[in-house]
Amino acid sequence: MKYRGRALALLICICGYIGWTLHTYLEYGAIWTSGTNELIHIFGNLAEFVLAWWIGLQFDKVQYLSERDALTGVYNRRYLYNWFERLQTCRGRQEPFSLLLLDIDRFKLINDTHGHRTGDLVIAKVAHILKQTLRKTDMIVRWGGDEFLIIAKGEACPTQLRELIQQNLQGLSAQLDFPLSASIGVLPDASARQQDLDALVHAADCCMYEQKQLTRTSMQ
């Protein structure tokens, strides 16, 4: 969780305290005026700082929940759209990126067989695998119920990332004690396509569907 709200609230509180101190000194020639209960004044200032921190914390919580998926902690679709909109305004300076779309195979069967609580556990663990596998500069987004969108920034090879994710998911399958796999569509150098986000996701979805069909054919 970012500290933007708390930092801003404390900054405003500090500026107010400095302003009051300067005003008191210029008005009376001293920080403490006669008759002022210094102890009460000190505790009052501490209470102001605590209140400012708490208000900032509530702002940070709201900001976090507006950008993150509650189950997995990764970014949500709203954040991605806002990020992509900001990206469009600085297209000449944007960093290249590739796009990967992950869909958990036979997820409905997992829910029907093991229950929705296990289904939620699978989604959370897949998100955890993605966090461990990908770099901090990459962006993970929960795109839908059992779909994750990955923005691989820079010159990373998306095909290698897909293979690495698949390998780590095999280890997760062994932990869960039932088969778990995912189909991952790869859209290399998506930033060079000059398309909007929905068009890019649609292209990645087509690639993911092709891979899913190939997997089904190989299993027959």
Quickly list its features:
220 residues, alpha+beta, Alpha-Beta Plaits, 2 domains, four-stranded antiparallel sheet, 7 helices, 62% helix, 11% strand
How does this model look, in words?
The chain crosses the membrane at residues 7-26, 38-57. Keywords: Membrane, Transmembrane, Transmembrane helix. GO terms for molecular function: diguanylate cyclase activity. Pfam families: GGDEF. InterPro entries: Diguanylate_Cyclase, GGDEF_dom, Nucleotide_cyclase, Rev_trsase/Diguanyl_cyclase. The relative contact order is 0.12. Helix 1 packs antiparallel against helix 2. The protein is 62% helix and 11% strand. The protein folds into 2 domains: 4-67; 77-219, Reverse transcriptase/Diguanylate cyclase domain (Alpha-Beta Plaits). The longest helix is centred in the N-terminal third of the chain and has 30 residues, at 38-67. It has a 4-stranded antiparallel beta sheet with strand order 2-3-1-4, sandwiched between helices. It has helices at 4-28, 38-67, 77-89, 107-114, 116-133, 158-176, 197-219; strands at 97-104, 139-142, 147-153, 182-187. The protein contains 7 helices and 4 strands; from the N terminus they run H-H-H-E-H-H-E-E-H-E-H. A hairpin with a 4-residue loop joins strand 2 (139-142) and strand 3. By secondary structure, the chain is α+β, with helices and mostly antiparallel strands.
